[in-house]
Amino acid sequence: MAESPKKKCPICGKPMVEEFKPFCSRRCADIDLNRWLTGNYVIPARDDEPLPDADGEDENF
Ligand SMILES: [Zn+2]
């Protein structure tokens, strides 16, 4: 079991796709954008996941 833990799409929970990261598809990216625009986006307080601040940087061990 040497599977590297991939990030999941914050919208639907599917594995992230590089092309649309951090989402799994453009659709989910669109949904996320829409949430921001409509002000419905709720940032989870103190999640254990650090924000992706670098491109392509693997923050896992
Ligand atoms: Zn998704």
Automatic annotation (TrEMBL):
This is DNA gyrase inhibitor YacG. It comes from the Bacteria. It comes from Devosia marina. HAMAP family: DNA_gyrase_inhibitor_YacG (MF_00649). Gene3D superfamilies: Erythroid Transcription Factor GATA-1, subunit A (3.30.50.10). Interacts with GyrB. Zn(2+) binds at C9, C12, C24, C28. Inhibits all the catalytic activities of DNA gyrase by preventing its interaction with DNA. Acts by binding directly to the C-terminal domain of GyrB, which probably disrupts DNA binding by the gyrase. Belongs to the DNA gyrase inhibitor YacG family. Keywords: Metal-binding, Zinc. InterPro entries: DNA_gyrase_inhibitor_YacG (IPR005584), Znf_NHR/GATA (IPR013088). GO terms for molecular function: DNA topoisomerase type II (double strand cut, ATP-hydrolyzing) inhibitor activity; zinc ion binding. Its cofactor is Zn(2+). PANTHER family: DNA GYRASE INHIBITOR YACG. Binds 1 zinc ion. The gene is yacG. One of its GO terms (biological process) is regulation of DNA-templated transcription. The keyword Metal-binding applies.
